[in-house]
Write a structure and sequence with these properties.
- The complex is a heterodimer.
- By secondary structure, chain A is an all-beta fold.
- Chain A has no helices and 9 strands.
- Chain B is mainly β.
- In chain B, the strands form 2 sheets. In chain B, strands 2, 4, 5, 6, 9, 10 and 11 form a 7-stranded mixed β-sheet that branches. In chain B, strands 1-3-8-7 form a 4-stranded antiparallel β-sheet, with no helix packed on it.
- The chains are: A mainly beta, B mainly beta.
- The interface between A and B is medium-sized, with 25 and 22 residues.
Chain lengths: 110, 117
């Protein structure tokens, strides 16, 4: 169960769009449409932003969107705002009642 | 509203065991599986395992097999996670998180476990 691969950091200016990638293998990201994304501010518990690849929980801004192609999932944040600055983690079901997280990406809003 | 309230911080010596509790409220406890996730200082999230509060069945990450035990008490709507043979690398914040059912939809506040001699 190796961690999913995410870029260590991404940055963007307010109003811009950024995309964070999450690469796995055919037995996790590529094999199931159960990819979710979490936002974590310092000292806080993670919060789900996207689930089932592209679904948004109630209350999450529509500036957040998700997609998947093959073994790579992506989180896009449009209209970047200062409060979006946080760490982001992807997570995928990996079969046999197991899950795996990505290493995390630090988003900096310039 | 859904709430997951975890037990307080712990300090343990290497080789000891620690048990962290997570008390659920605001929903039917036996209808949702519960995960445990940990986060070492300045590190990422790491999935540890999952328990079915209804029947008590569990699935653990390979890394923790043999060292972790997850249990539940339906009378108190509580799940426990016990980690044994602690080492310094187990110093982390431990979270319980509800399985919702294909994401981690509610999280506890986290419990800091420090392993130090």
């Amino acid at each position: 169960q190796s961690a999913l691969t995410q870029p260590a950091s991404v940055s963007g200016s307010p109003g811009q769009s950024i995309t964070i990638s999450c690469t796995g293998i055919s037995s996790d990201v590529g094999g199931y449409n159960y990819v979710s994304w979490y936002q974590q501010h310092p000292g806080k518990a993670p919060k789900v932003m996207i689930y089932d690849v592209s679904k948004r929980p109630s209350g999450v801004s529509n500036r957040f969107s998700g997609s998947k192609s093959g073994n790579t999932a992506s989180l896009t944040i449009s209209g970047l705002q200062a409060e979006d600055e946080a760490d982001y983690y992807c997570c995928s079901y990996a079969g046999s009642s197991t899950w795996v997280f990505g290493g995390g990406t630090k988003l900096t809003v310039l | 509203q859904v709430q997951l309230v975890q037990s307080g911080a712990e300090v343990k010596k290497p080789g000891a065991s620690v048990k962290v509790s997570c008390k659920a409220s605001g929903y039917t406890f036996t209808n949702y599986y519960m995960h445990w996730v940990r986060q070492a200082p300045r590190q990422g999230l790491e999935w540890m395992g999952i328990i079915n509060p209804s029947g008590g069945s569990t699935s653990y990450a390979q890394k923790f097999q043999g060292r972790v035990t997850m249990t539940r008490d339906t009378s108190t709507s509580t799940v426990d996670m016990e980690l044994s043979s602690l080492r310094s690398e187990d110093t982390a914040v431990y979270y319980c998180a509800r399985n919702g059912p294909t994401s981690f939809d509610y999280w506890g506040q986290g419990t800091l476990v420090t392993v130090s001699s």
